[in-house]
Amino acid sequence: MSKYKSSRKLNTFIENRTIYSANHAELNVFETQQAAEKVDLQFGFPIIASMLTGKKVMHLKNKDAFEFFPGESVVLPANEKMIIDFPLASIEKPTQCLALGIDPDKIKETVALFNENSRIEFENDAHNFDAKSIHLHNNEQVQFVLERIFQTFLSGNKAKDVLVDLMVKELIIRLLQTKAKLMLVDNTTLFDNNRMAFIVKYMRDHLTENISVDKLADKACMSTSNFYRTFRNTLGESPIDYLNAERIKFAKRLIQNTNWKFADIAFKSGFNNISYFNRQFKRLEKITPNQYRSLFNSSYKNQVFS
Asked: Which residues fall within 8 angstroms of residue 298, CB to CB, at 6 or more apart?
């Protein structure tokens, strides 16, 4: 934790965020130093969250509120909104939590690889699984891999990306042996062999083009109203919201890997209006593009020189 403390930069007392990035994963460390209620948080990619210190009370969709302690994990699909209470946070005893975001394609790749080579074994009888059950209590193997990933991000090792990639695969396989398996498999096989798979791929391949719902419906050979309804029911959000989230993910990679102006990054990511780009970035990431670049640069420099 000493390396984390030296690399973090405190900008706020509630859910202060430090970012560490690799090729297929992004680690966010959140620290809260004062009691608070009803703090909302949302990610545009699947995440596994793990408590480091303190206590949270989590309010998730279609699930009773529950207390979240160190040694426990929560697995969430992309765009799942969280409402969080921090009843015990203080400057002397902050509440700290890490949230590891994983590229959905990496999840799908690992699930396919695992199914080719082994049969998924479950912790408990499969009939007792609840598809909405995503709160993992004291799973030592999952926690051990998460701790190794955290330490690797902090180490600044030149082989960091390769090591994190291997550990993320291990983490996914560990999660496939828990009750989180249903959420992972459901989200990675959701698009197989249907028109939505084609549309999602088309959107990702044409991010910089002017894409309308009418155009997507035409590509799917569906009426606009039927396409919109089917897309929303399948992915849980509108086609434009999904497209914007993909564009923001692409923009984040450009921010990490270039020194381009934000107007150029917005244009390269498919946004024709810098103000709209800024609003969408803030909506999805809870910080501005400039704040994201500052956080990433600060985290990267501390990894390199620590």
From this structure: 7, 9, 18
